[in-house]
Amino acid sequence: MIEFWYEFASTYSYPAAMRVEHLADQAGVVVHWRPFIVGPLFNEQQGLTDSPFNAFPVKGDYMWRDLQRVCDREGLPLHHPSQFPRNSLLAARVAICGLEDGWTPAFSRAVYQANFVDDLDIGSPEVLAPLIAGVGAGPEHVLAAAASAPIKDQLKDHVRQARERGLFGAPSFVTADGELFWGNDRLEQALDWAVRHQDMESA
């Protein structure tokens, strides 16, 4: 298995989220989706209160061009969001609501579509409600659950786990033996490692 750690405001998490399940299925690897908020880690580790792509414009300019190349290669549409990064807190809480019922992956892909293709405010309940309905869940019930203490605490726990695993950005992949891989371009390597680790465990 691999843990897929992702943040809805993260640019490179977009292509990773769109690719991970198909590639994992091909490799025979189970994906554990782990939505979290990367802002606290940026603040703790680098003293940043904004995306590093905004804090360092030359890095941001490169990232947007590189992301376009990545999306073109993968056949994914991309529209530069009019606001970056967007507030992803509510979307992350909603994604956690779906973990037990299994709709988190489909919902997560829909959120990335809304943010990086349709240029919608993913922090808005009005934007998220039809996405929740689109995966077969009840928007009113889910949004109420997302505002509850248990879901808020679970998201905080995801941030704690991310910190303990040594994460410093998104997307990140952690294999069963604790090996950390960072970035969309490390997805295939993470899957290869997970398969080899499982083969060694079985030998």
UniProtKB/TrEMBL annotation:
Q: What class of enzyme is it?
A: isomerase
Q: Which reaction does it catalyse?
A: 2-hydroxychromene-2-carboxylate = (3E)-4-(2-hydroxyphenyl)-2-oxobut-3-enoate
Give the Enzyme Commission number. 5.99.1.4
Keyword list (alphabetical) reads: Isomerase
Q: Where is the DSBA-like thioredoxin domain?
A: 2-190
Q: Which InterPro entries match?
A: DSBA-like_thioredoxin_dom (IPR001853), GST_Kappa/NadH (IPR051924), HCCAis_GSTk (IPR014440), NahD-like (IPR044087), Thioredoxin-like_sf (IPR036249)
Q: Which GO terms describe its biological process?
A: glutathione metabolic process; naphthalene catabolic process
- Listed Pfam families: DSBA
GO function term, MF aspect, one: glutathione transferase activity
* Organism domain of life: Bacteria
What span is annotated as the signal peptide, if there is one? Answer: none
Q: Does the keyword Isomerase apply?
A: yes
The entry's family comment says: Belongs to the GST superfamily. NadH family.
Under which name does UniProt file this protein? 2-hydroxychromene-2-carboxylate isomerase
